[in-house]
Write a structure and sequence with these properties.
Blueprint: H1 3-20, H2 22-32, H3 37-41, H4 44-66, H5 76-94, H6 96-105, H7 111-129, H8 145-160, H9 162-169, H10 177-184, H11 197-221, H12 226-237, H13 255-268, H14 272-281, H15 285-289, H16 291-314, H17 319-324, H18 333-346, H19 350-365, H20 380-392, H21 405-423, E1 432-433, E2 436-437, H22 440-464, H23 471-482, H24 503-517, H25 521-527
Antiparallel strand pairs: 1-2
Helix pairs in contact: 1-4, 1-5, 2-4, 2-8, 4-6, 5-7, 5-10, 5-25, 6-7, 7-8, 7-24, 8-12, 9-11, 11-12, 11-13, 11-14, 13-19, 16-19, 19-20, 21-22, 22-23, 22-24, 23-24
């Protein structure tokens, strides 16, 4: 492992972060509207950004000085290490503005409040960069505009990948570039569109930006402010979920806005190579030939139909069922009655049931996590269906989390292949997707990833049970963070948050978010002792 090259690369990325942080800092400065610059700089809303910009840039320069841009070997281990340590470092410096804000809100500064502020800030920004959308902030509407924008921008940067952005705007990192690209882009394969990796990164980011701009326009037509439209478009296209409203998308009470976000969440869950070929070359036949897209569409369609049917038959849960569901702050009888009345009104007509079912299914399947209704008070069939969909996730090459649709397809086909092999031991059955034979090494890689994913999920769920007594909450907290979704069930349901979880539990969930976004292998290779041996 070439440590100096890793240090140099992380330093370069920290410099990029410093320049990116200028954007939310400028928004904060505009919000302060203070004529005297010195007074504005000392404002608690801006000082955190200034510290983050200076410390990130200075640290980046120091690391580049002590590092080296020279890399002589294959760069495989270095690429994965750069991705992992960059994400950890970028989150650390990106959390400074939020930490400064939290500390300012504290009445007394002590070691406990400092640790709490650091943990919550790191959790929130890791949730942003990994496009998880799990929040520890109970009232987001009181946050300064700069911090609100920064939270949403971390989604957008993390969705396509900040390292992929670096590859697009800076000279290539050398022979480690492809490993960095492969370690950050979600899915079992990282497909090149052009021979030069920088060209591929530019294509992906330009497609991503174009779709984001298109959604901003539609949301503005729907009545959102430009600021809200930008923040929610960042969250949608990155399949993130941070909102500028406490009630998420439900706050707007607009069928038009909800349908716009449903469509763009669906698009964000697709492979961006499909978007590129349709937008730039009008090759619509790619939709006919892409089996993963067919599977993705089929799963979502079936789930929506099932949800609408169950909602039509059963409606929302009864008062006793809602009362039995765990909450950190139990709902009063009056609050439950009000919730039932509100949620019944949301799904009164068939079109309402269809819209909210589609929103919940697409939001969870694509791992976005936005909410148009409190699905946690819907029948248990739908609640657990949504948990299952968490693991499916989006397509490979999308910004979605989860195991990914292509991996689920391979697992199902592998299971049926084994059944046939048991019946006919001598038969040779290559595994095919869209009439293309997958190499056995690739199949083993997918099966290995799935086993590791389930193993980490089991261990982290067991660990979270030490901090959260309720089984449903502890189980879905890991599912929601490891699959990069955000909301789970019960104590972390659609209208709840993660603020009440003990510090130890939050750090376990931070690990879950990182493992889920970088898809386990990247993190394991970076920390494996064998990777650091000469």
């Amino acid at each position: 492992m070439n440590k100096k090259f890793i240090i140099f690369s992380v330093g370069k990325l920290l410099e990029i972060l410093a320049f990116i942080l200028i954007i939310p800092a400028a928004i904060t400065l505009f919000e302060i509207k203070q004529k005297h610059l010195l007074v504005a700089i000392l404002d608690y809303r801006l000082v955190g950004f200034i510290i983050a910009i200076i410390s990130s840039f200075v640290t980046g320069n120091i690391l580049k000085t002590f590092g080296s841009s020279e890399l002589s070997d294959s760069g495989i281990k270095e690429g994965f290490a750069i991705v992992t340590f960059s994400w950890l470092s970028l989150t650390f410096f990106g959390a400074i503005p939020l930490m400064s804000y939290f500390l300012h809100q504290s009445a007394n500064i002590s070691i406990i409040t400092f640790l709490s502020a650091f943990t919550d800030s790191y959790f929130e920004i890791m949730s942003g960069f990994t496009t998880t959308g799990a929040t520890v902030i109970s009232n987001v509407e009181i946050l300064p505009s700069g911090i609100l924008f920064w939270r949403s921008l971390t989604h957008w940067l993390g969705g396509m990948g900040i390292i992929t952005l670096a590859l697009a705007i800076l000279p290539a990192f050398g022979i480690a570039s492809y490993q960095m690209f492969k370690g950050e882009v979600p899915g079992p394969t990282a497909e090149r569109l052009k021979p030069r990796l920088a060209q591929t990164a530019k294509i992906l980011w330009s497609t991503y930006a174009m779709l984001t701009l298109l959604e901003v326009i539609f949301l503005r037509i729907g009545g959102m402010t430009t600021f809200d439209a930008l923040c929610h478009s960042f969250g949608t296209m990155a399949t993130g979920g941070f909102s500028t409203k406490n009630a998420s998308i439900a706050a707007y009470n607009s069928p038009f806005i909800e349908w716009v976000i449903i469509v763009f969440m669906f698009l964000a869950g697709m492979n961006f190579i499909i978007h590129y070929r349709i937008l730039f070359f009008r090759k619509f036949d790619i939709l006919q030939n892409n089996r993963e897209f067919h599977f993705y569409f089929f799963i979502i369609l079936i789930a929506i139909l099932a949800s609408v049917t169950v909602l039509a038959v059963k409606g929302v849960n009864s008062k006793s069922q809602i009362a039995q569901s765990f909450r950190n702050q139990p709902l009063t009888e009056k609050a439950i009655d009000k919730k039932i009345t509100n949620e019944d009104a949301r799904i009164e007509s068939f079109s309402d049931k269809l819209r909210h079912s589609a929103f919940a299914v697409v939001s969870i399947t694509t791992t976005t996590g936005y909410c148009s209704a409190d699905s946690d008070v819907w029948p248990n069939f739908i609640r657990y269906l949504l948990v299952i969909l968490m693991f499916f996730g989006g397509c490979a090459g999308s910004t979605g989390g989860g195991i990914k649709m292509i991996r689920i397809m391979v697992i199902i086909k592998s299971a049926f292949r084994e059944i046939k092999a048991l019946i006919q031991p001598r038969i040779v059955l290559p595994l095919k997707i869209a009439k293309k034979t997958l190499a056995e090494k690739q199949v083993q890689n997918i099966l290995g990833f799935t086993m590791l994913f389930l193993a980490f999920f089991t261990v982290c769920s067991l660990a979270m049970s030490l901090f959260i007594e309720d089984f449903t909450t502890s189980f879905t907290s890991v599912a929601a963070t490891m699959c990069n979704i955000g909301p789970g069930l019960s104590g972390i349901g659609a209208t709840e948050n993660y603020a009440w979880i003990p510090l130890g539990g939050k750090w376990i969930l931070v690990l879950c978010m990182l493992l889920g976004r970088l898809e386990i292998y990247t993190v394991l290779i970076a920390f494996a002792p064998i990777s650091w041996k000469k």
